[in-house]
Amino acid sequence: MNDQRGHQLRPSTITTRDGRTLRVRSLTATDADILERMFYRLSPESIYRRFFIAAEHASPELVRKSAQRLAAIKPHREAALVALADENGREEAIAVARFARLPHNPKVAEASILVRDDYHGRGVGRALLELLLEEARAANLERLIFLTHADNTAMIRLATGLGLPFHGRHADGLYEIHLLLQPQAVPEYAFIGTARG
């Protein structure tokens, strides 16, 4: 991906800590169905932490429309990667990582990652996020911003444990993490930490 147009990630693989191999490729509009199926494999806690909505408020229509919207990547401003596994003869989404450029600052993007609960603790999130960082650098981004609940320590450890300079701040029960991707870039503020990972 670059500033003018997008590109498809060359398919690759990641290996989980317990030795499973997952395929990774760019998300496409035809993936709405697997995103919808992935949603129904998430715990209520994961749904709340990622989508800021209670699971009981996620109607089938809302889930379907959200999956279609999330799969409809705008290549000039977004990128999304999906990690896949074959389960019972069908391709299923295990994790998704994405970024979207801010409208007012195309060198900065909001980013997110979601890993299915039964794959937590297997290194999938870190491996997929490292691939997303490669995409972000190729897109000439200077910063990625992650927004999560202030008590989501797993997400905070993941984002701040990548070996990149970062700045974090609390706001209204949420925690915002800014990762600096281009060390030569002049930050808008002084960073308060450097991740070790």
TrEMBL record:
Entry keywords, A to Z = Acyltransferase, Transferase
- Tell me the Pfam families matching this sequence: Acetyltransf_1
InterPro entries listed in its UniProt record: Acyl_CoA_acyltransferase, GNAT_dom
Q: Where is the N-acetyltransferase domain?
A: 22-186
What is the superkingdom listed in this entry's lineage?
Answer: Bacteria
Q: S-adenosyl-L-methionine: is it a keyword of this entry? A: no
Instruction: Tell me the GO molecular function terms.
Output: acyltransferase activity, transferring groups other than amino-acyl groups
Matches recorded under PROSITE patterns: GNAT
Q: Sorted alphabetically, which PANTHER family does this protein's record hold?
A: N-ACETYLTRANSFERASE, UPF0039 PROTEIN C11D3.02C
Q: What is this protein called?
A: GCN5-related N-acetyltransferase
